[in-house]
Design goal:
Blueprint: E1 2-4, H1 6-24, H2 28-53, E2 57-60, E3 66-67, E4 72-79, E5 85-94, E6 99-107, E7 110-117, E8 123-134, E9 141-146, E10 152-156, H3 173-178, E11 185-192, H4 204-210, E12 214-220, E13 226-230, H5 236-255, E14 260-264, E15 267-271, H6 278-287, E16 306-308
Parallel strand pairs: 3-10, 13-14, 13-16
Antiparallel strand pairs: 1-9, 2-4, 4-7, 5-6, 5-8, 8-9, 8-10, 11-12, 14-15
Helix pairs in contact: 1-2, 5-6
Length: 314
Amino acid sequence: MTRPSGLALRGAAFYAVLVASFFASPYANLYFLLLVFLSIVVAFDAWSSWRNVRGVHAAIAVPEPFASGTSSFVRGVVDGGRRRRFGLEVVVSLADRGALRWPIPFVDGQTAFTGAIPARPRGRTEITGAWLVSTWPFGFIRARRRIPFDGALIVYPAPVPDASSATGVGAGDDAAATGGHAGTVQPAGVREYRPGDSPRRVHWRATARRGAPVVSEWEAGRGSGREIVLDRRTDEPTLEHNLGVVAALAHASREDESVLTLHTQGASTSFGDAQRPWRGLFEALATAEPLPVGGAAPPPVSPGALRLGPGTAR
């Protein structure tokens, strides 16, 4: 797809002035040469821009969740085939009418690039489309080619410092001492290997029998790990703080490779190795909203769980 750029619109106005001057001025030959020259330049620019993106392929990794107030990045690869490409740009449009622009000045074969994502507020923003754009060489014509890039920008609350010592209303001494530690993980069965699974979870005997990789599945028991109750019947500032506590404990659980179980209104889910992916937890934190005071309570859990509720100290 090709279309005029902003420079082309200004150039069109200048071209119109030359056409008017051609008919009104006695120097018709001079203006005729200028018009022919500009017409050739625009035609060449349109052809070059279209040829610059023709046959180019791009692959971009799904953006990882990142904390509010911090920037992030994605990695991708552009394959220009046998020809060198110049002045390309990846443009990603977002559901909030914003856009991300990642320039790629030079492509020779398969070329890796890194795209910056500026700091954003907490939330989930859908990616509505992505294009590989060329305005090379003169910038009069913008040619673009749609590239596959699905997903969303997931921005979770900034982790609260020293959150492991945070306790909520109703938290017992055990929860205060352990920072919400819950049960051990116990084997529950096997399932097919999925990208991102730890090689340490591969069940080699079952893999040999089936002829395809399988991993062990685990379920939470009672011993280690973290268990948190998040009561969302509170005001927005308190909820934001509590979400930051959960985010900090999630990072700690990822570092020590333990399981984190989160109980909140409408959901009780375990995250970690051989459990639900951490991305699901960060997405839940990014989209969580406060509930009315008279709403339903979180599900009942063991008294040793860390409880984060309306009266959580900040």
